[in-house]
Design a protein that fits this description.
The protein has 290 residues and is of the alpha/beta class. The chain contains 13 helices and 10 strands. The chain is globular. The chain starts with a helix and ends with a helix.
């Protein structure tokens, strides 16, 4: 791959997906795109770039998908899901008691482990949300990973990564060498293809937004723009969850940290969350269950 080819790919990937590749990531591009070139019966990356410059839009889309990182697993990093169970959902159950509805968005949902983890968590909290209308929207730039997510079929390796054995037994059915998520959990998640760089306002507003481990690939200006869009889609008392290596600090003042819950943020204009409120709801639910 020539330096000119690499610069062309860097610019295209930045424009199409927000991926901000540094000048020393040529090896990464080669490792991801050489297999694609071979599958397309092309001699190498120079010919791939030539076809893209000639207007091969489908091939260009495949290049963007090949360069998108789709690393994910069930209950990834665990802590955000503990926060969701212990603080966020109980507080929202109290705040949304009148309307009895909840909307959750998983941006960059990849092959589905994150939204399905949230769906299982909500299923385990039936006492709190019985009779509620709950929407979980899973979006990703890649249609291929969305199709895999819709099928809800996972390998033994995938279900062993972060998924508690009791949830595997309870919510999955073995299909040969694969495990399929039960239809009731799959039915809780809606899938839509979405590019975070484009207009995303049509998704509506949400009570919880998971935008984890995707902004780390963007430059500061792109991050600020996405935070601005997300801030308009989050309810005034809603919650934004970022990845362990991500933060709003130094990028935007539209969000502030959620009290005592690392990785969670609320709109800067939101009332300060009361730490005791979630505990009160959990105790009430536990008492009613006895």
């Amino acid at each position: 791959m020539t330096p000119l080819d690499y610069e062309y790919l860097r610019k295209l990937l930045k424009e199409r997906s927000g991926l901000d590749l540094s000048s020393d990531k040529q090896y990464l591009v080669e490792s991801r795109l050489l297999p694609l070139a071979r599958r397309s019966n092309l001699a190498g990356i120079p010919e791939l770039v030539l076809r893209m410059k000639g207007g091969a839009e489908m091939l260009t889309s495949e290049v963007v998908e090949a360069m998108t990182t789709n690393e994910t697993f069930f209950f990834r990093d665990k802590i955000p899901f503990d926060h969701l169970k212990e603080a966020v959902l109980p507080a929202l159950a109290q705040a949304r008691a009148a309307r009895r509805s909840l909307r959750i968005w998983c941006a960059a949902s990849s092959t589905g482990q994150e939204p399905y983890s949230i769906a299982m968590l909500l299923k385990e909290m039936t006492a709190l949300f019985s009779g509620w209308r709950i929407e979980i929207i899973a979006t990703d730039l890649s249609q291929a990973v969305l199709e895999k997510s819709k099928a809800g079929l996972f390998s033994q390796f995938e279900v062993q990564r972060g998924l508690p054995i009791q949830l595997l037994v309870k919510y999955f059915t073995q299909q040969g060498e694969l495990w399929q998520l039960n239809a009731d959990i799959r039915g809780m998640v809606q899938h839509r293809q979405l590019n975070l760089l484009q207009d995303i306002s049509h998704l509506g507003t949400f009570d919880v937004i998971f935008c984890r481990n995707v902004l780390i690939y963007f430059d500061q200006q792109t991050k600020a723009g996405i935070f601005s869009k997300i801030s308009r889609m989050l309810e005034p008392d809603g919650v934004l969850a970022l990845g362990a290596a991500e933060s709003v600090v130094g990028i935007t003042n539209l969000f502030r940290p959620y009290p005592d819950r690392r990785g969670l943020y609320q709109p800067s204009t939101a009332p300060v969350a009361r730490a005791g409120a979630a505990l009160h709801v959990l105790k009430a639910v536990a008492s009613a269950a006895r």
